[in-house]
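Could you join me in thinking about how sequence relates to backbone shape in a protein? We need material for that, and I hope you will provide a protein of your own picking. Label the sequence line and the structure token line clearly, so we can match residues to local backbone shapes. Would you write everything just below, so we can both look at the same thing?
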Amino acid sequence: MVQQLEESLSRILTHVYPISGRFDENKCSIICQDQGVTLIKAKVNRRMDDEFLQQAYNNLDFVMEFWPHDIKVVNATNLFVTPIMFVQITIFQCGGIALSTSTSHPAMDGWTNFTFIYEWSKVCKLGIPTEKINFMSFDLANIFGPRNITFSDQAKPLNTKLVAKNQIMDEVSLSKLRDKLTNSEALCFKPSRVEMVTAILWRSQLRASQAITGEIKPSVMSFPLNLRGKLKYPESTNPFGNFIIDIPITYDPKGNTNMELKDFIILIRETMQKTLDYCGETSSANEVIEMVANLYNKNYEGKEWGANDDIEEFTCSSLTRFHMQEANFGWGNPKLMHFGSRNNQVFWLYSTQCGNSIGVQMDLKEKYMDFIQHDLEFLAFIKV
């Protein structure tokens, strides 16, 4: 199995050639000289049985042991000698496999990463020849060439312990919420499941903050938006690369401290729709770049975003339409998935195995997690 995984990885890397390169010293381009990716092979002296999977589901920190540890050597000073992708294959006594990847986000966003894994699984299972691998384009550089733009540094890891938990949202409760909001005319639109779940998580986050700090703080939620298919460029339909923008959605408690779910849903819908409308109307790459620069360089009440104690900040990333559950390398679909590296507070939304529910991986401060896990208003939407 390991040989099959390794050979199929080599074949697909021939097609997705930037992954095998290295960042130039300017950190703005990739030099492709077939340096390759780092592949780590490991063994664990236990079986991947139901007991192990339940332990891993209940303790996501335990799952981090199967993540490529060599990535710890990466820092901002040696990107030009560091592989863009690390892959780790861990073999259990029973023959089960834990497969993990760690990639450089400036080169590959989540869509690129999971599309890569999904297509790799097909090459591994079906033995697709290299010349027939054709699933992503490399046209972004033709649209968005190099530009001299300065972005404020927002990515500041929190200096506190973060813990992770998995929860499954209850579809019946979500349907009742949608009916209640639309039948009472609290909303003039039908909210999506992602909008409702994001609103529930955001309000729970602020309720935890209020209980811990004694005040309702302003909040900024970063919502990554996949730009594929949202611009007027045919080349941007399914390109390789980092083709997302983090849309900041701000909540100001001044004059509105009730924190009703409908208010958060409206805030999410209006902010996202405004950005989508702009993306659909603009025809200039320069305008898109200017919009992104304005988003990333914006301040909230004169305060810089990133590890700011005066503002509650977190990210909600929806992976619900990604192909993760279908990544079958020839030995069945994934039994358990884990996201992120536990650097910042993040809610990861993903489709469950049956495809009918939304799962949430919560990476939160320990005190916040303790509150949310006992918050009855939050638990009312959790599947028992």
Observations:
- The first strand starts at residue 22 and ends at 23.
- The longest helix spans residues 193-213.
